[in-house]
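Quarterly update from the structural biology core.
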Amino acid sequence: MTPQLAFDRYEAICNRLPRPIGNPGLGQRISSLAEMSEHADVFVFDAFGVLNVGETPIPGAADRVKQLRQAGKQVFVLTNAASYSHAQSCAKFLGLGFDFAPEEIVSSRDVCEQHLGLFQMVTKWGVIAPTSCDISSLPAPACHLDDSAAPYDQVSGFLFLSAQDWTAQRQAQLIQSLRRNPRPVVVANPDLVAPREHGLSLEPGFFAHALQDELGTDVQFHGKPFPSVYQEIAARVPHVPAHRITMVGDTLHTDILGAQANGWRSVLVSDHGVYANLPFESFIDTSGLVPDWITPSI
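Predicted structure, tokenized:
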């Protein structure tokens, strides 16, 4: 998957995504967040492409977060990485050199799990994630799905956490099972791709939208750019107006769109994520998703 193909795919499914409210941003160029920090009380950071690339921290990112906190700003991480439990997420960022408190880390998986209890008809979840992924916190019994065909028909709902070990064969088995017996599909990572050290990986959103293309399946998404994760952040800062919250991310159709759909302001990081070394201006022009600010790095 190339950045251009990923962008084209996001454009093709834009009717399934939230819509921005208000006017686009101005796309003002800045050298770092220090130049616009007076305009925000709360900074919400995407992880991949902003704080880290794969398992490598971006130079200077941890220091910038500390500086913003010292200036009296509230800081959060809002990540679509859904294969980690909350404790594992906290440990990950600590290992990368960031000093986020547990309550400052919000993952799409955390929010997704809060909503799974609404599916009272689901007595067992079929989980799409590596077997190393801890699923003990789910509110109903669950099993990992692999190459064995039988479990696909035995579960009463499907939960997409990670596409790390997902294959075309497993995707075909899922489609066949849903065609025989439609059941709820919940996705805790809506991303199509994610920046890694050696390129872009395919993420759960890629496969979930393929399901919708194939079957017309109604999929419930939790994670950027969908509303529930923004509602979770807003509930933690109830006295902060939406326009004083700034999302900092590297992707137009997740980070920037999600912010604009909730009345937040936005910063696009251009040099480390999906659009690194690319003429990202053309992506902005085509999509019409213009952030308030653009910076090479935070």
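DSSP finds ten helices and 16 strands in the chain.
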